[in-house]
Amino acid sequence: MPLIDAHCHLDDAQFADDLDDVIARALDAGISAIITAGADVATSRAAVELAEKYASVYAVVGIHPHAAHAFDDAQLDQIRALALHRKVVGIGEIGLDFYWKENAPRAIQERVLIAQLDLAVEVDKPVVIHDRDAHAELMAILARRTSPRGILHCFSGDLAMARAAIDRGFLISFAGNLTFKNATRLQAIARELPLEKIVIETDAPYLSPLRGNRNEPANVARGAEKIATIKNVEPRVVADATTQNSKMLFRME
Ligand code: NI
Fold first, then answer.
1. Is the bond into 93 cis (omega within 30 degrees of 0)?
2. How far is the CA of 59 from the centre of ligand 1 (A)?
């Protein structure tokens, strides 16, 4: 099956010892592209270095809401410089996270997000959005800006939000948590959405389908199989559609 892992973190320390093997297993599983995401300037630079090292790896670069405290014009300039790299296919992961109380105040998170949405428009690349407990605030920002296209990574909203995001040019990205037994609400949303608007990711090393284990890009196949079961179609149909969706959005060969 042709597959793309639309979002993961290959720079994570959990991959430090065996990344060559992890990539080899992904290629064996049919994965043609892996998009690894930065979360601050250092990890964005690391993502670009991995994209330079591995042909099948692409990068997105940006400042995650967890790192919004330190954001300034100098950081924005560094992300802009990285964004121009030929293997950087988007700006991310960026967004809002109101779950963790130690994160920057909401107003700062929103300012950091808007600056990077503007950057994405400027460099003409899509965005990878992180949203935790900030659904309404995120949709308000996407509605009032000349918003770029992108994906809502590890989608956690409801069906109405998914449809509103799709109307704004977004794709809905389902992560490994879609395969969890208690994910019935998320699975119901996946059932309703057209395959043309869905992409699949692992968010590796997080959200392993085998809970408690390290996740890796090869497991994106499990996401495709789960969506196929939910939609009562062949896994190949899901793999083809989601691969095409990611390729078109991120403009990968
Ligand atoms: Ni992530």
1. yes
2. 12
